[in-house]
Each structure stands twice: as structure tokens, then as C-alpha cells.
Sequence to fold (329 residues):
Amino acid sequence: MESFLDTAVDVLKDAFVDTVYLIPFLLVTYLFMEWLEHKTSEKTQAAIRKAGAAGPIVGAALGVVPQCGFSAAASTLYAGRVIGLGTLIAVFLSTSDEMLPIFIAEQVPLNVLLGMLGIKLVIGMVFGIIIDAVLRLARRPQESLRIHELCERDHCDCSDDCATCKENPALAYEHHDDCSEGCDHGSHHHDHSHDAGWKSIVRSAVKHTLQVTLFVFLVSLAIDVLFEIVGEETIAAALSANELLAVVASAIVGLIPNCAASVAIAQLYVEGVLGFGATMAGLLSAAGVGLLVLLRTNRHAGQNALILLVLVGISILCGFAFQIAGFSL
Fold:
């Protein structure tokens, strides 16, 4: 009984740690999105989206930062269409998640550590730019911001009780801070202070953040329980069964939206169980809880499935290339 309680506490602690560090990333991201949607002009929004042409380069560079906070932020920004698909994929591919802390703890040679980070960075940039270029050549129309859709779906502003606000969610921010004060947009008598508008933006951002954080915590908890039941030995056996099969298996394991995936892959590489190609395949697809945030915020199942297929496809392709070429660090 005591052993069970100790395990339960460890699993809860791991799920909490996997989730709590996301809060500042999500809060800042939602604050920016709410401000962008309700406090900027159409010209300003268009300029920000046009600047996104360099998004894959910036995204890949930010993704290299340890932990997957930036992948969570990128998923949120993509759901609101503030960034494009190329930038999102660039962040996912370059995200190092728990790889860096594990390699440092295991005293992996600096040239190997930096080499892997550099490879992930370059792959993220290249494929992000390619994806955006393909979309431009296909003349896919640029989608407008969808931030208001997130608000409507999650009921995070005061528009729930106001018919006028439902038709135009931006009015909820421009004209009133609390619908309990009444809605009279037609007469234009609302004259709330600038601070009141920011209160609405902050309240909406906090509510979004709490909703996504709770979702990530619950799913992370379920995944941690599964890992505890399955065990790392079983995962190691599955990944080391065949060199080429290991590339595919590692990339699929990397899709598990939990830091345990990147921890297992990095640890198996250190122990010599996984080859370089299989390791890179797993680490490229290991976007961590950023995938969970994408599934929670972007309610387009077909799009999400395609994004996962593109991510795992690129990871397997690169893994096979390293494996066949016999490349290693």
C-alpha cells in the first residue's frame, strides 16, 4: 500500500511539473492574442502576419530552448492563425523538450549535444520554409485571425448574455467590461475607461490559460500512469527490435505529448540502445505538450491529423536518411 501511494504521488508530481511551467508561456501568448484581436487595427494585424514570412527561422530558433513551452505557445498562436503552418512545424521539429537536460546530466560530449541541437534547428528551418513555400505556390488564401473563435467556443468573454456581442465579439471589449451592467450598443452610451478594456483582455487570457492548463494536466497524468504501467524496459525492447523499424517506432513514440517520450528516447540513446537515425527521428517528432495544446485549441480534427502526419513523416524521412547514410556524431 505504501509503495502504491509513493508511486501515485510521484506520478502526480510528474504531471504537475510537466504542466505548471506552461502557465507563463500560455498566459503571455493569450494576452498578446487578445490584444492583437481587440486593440489593433486591421493594418497592424496584416503587418504582423506578413512579418511571419521569417516565422520558420524565428520559430526554429525559439524551439531549441529546453522544455516545450514555445511549442505550446506556437500551437496557441497557430490556432488563432497569428502564425502559419510552416512556423508551427519549424517549432515542433526543433523543440528539444527534455533532451538537453538529460544529455547534460549524462555528460554527453558537448560536440554531440550541440550537433543534435544544430541539426534539429536546421531541419526545422528548412522544412518550415518549404511548407510555407508550397502553400504559397498552391495559392492557399491566407486565413484571417481566428482568435474570436477561441473566445466564442470557450465562453471566455462577457458576450454570452449579449446578442450584439455574440454577433461581434470585439464589441465586448470595446464597449463594456461586464454584461451585467447592461448592453445598449445601439445608443453608444458605453464609455468605460481604458483600464476596463484591459481587464476584459486579462480576464479572457486567464480563463483560456486555466482551461488549457487543466486539459494538459489531466492528459499528462493519464500518460504518466500509462508509462508507469508499461515500463521503460518494454519501450526499449520495442524500439531496438530492428534498426529501420526503430526509426518508425521512435518517431511514433516521440508523438506522445509528454516529456516522458523525449526522456525515454534520449536515455536510450545514451545507453546505446538506439542508433543516431532512430534517436533523431524520435527527437524531431517529440513536440511534447505542444501537441496537446494544439489538439485543445485548434478544433479542426482533419487539420490536426494532417499536421501530425507531416511531423511524423518528416521525422521518419530524416531518421531514414541518417540511418542509411550511416551518419552519426
